[in-house]
What does this fold into?
Amino acid sequence: MAENKVQFGLSKAAFAPYTVVGDVVTFEAPIMIPGAVSLTLDPRGELTEFYADNILYYVASSNQGYDASLEIATIPQQFAIDALGETLDEEDGVVTEYADAQGKPFAFMFQFEGDVKATRHVLFNCTANRPSISGSTKTTSTEPGTNELTLVASPIEIDGKLIVKTKTIATTTPAIYDAWYTSVYKKVAIPAG
It folds into this structure.
């Protein structure tokens, strides 16, 4: 199968909360985040340069994940509860943001369309900051507002490896590609023997 020559069109944003017990990371089923507008991922980490013998003697990079900016139509209620730590009072039908609330980590999934096939991504260990809140009056036309979330995607240890991100490619098997939004992709270890 041919590779994409270009990418465009962010879609199918989703998140999946997870828990860690001992060394085992267990992801919940992905929950869609409708209304994805834009996504920017900026690398976290630095190049370390060491000079000796009057030359650049050694260079090492540090992959600490990504700083991300996600613009979406609205913050889904379930995301506010699961990822931002807000609390649902089902009796009164309100969601409250408490000052001491802590957000919970989650995997973040999305895809970019391509000229051949969409490329699907998963960032395994994300945390989100509270979004800015703004609005403006209607004028002669109605312009929908958006919300912007800042995310930090950090490495996480899964099956003994520090992992940041995984994405599909042209040769990804149909079984993996088609199940991308059913469960968070994790390489199944093949038993020795």
Remarks:
- The longest strand covers residues 7-21.
- The helical segments are 77-82, 174-178.
- The mean pLDDT is 89.
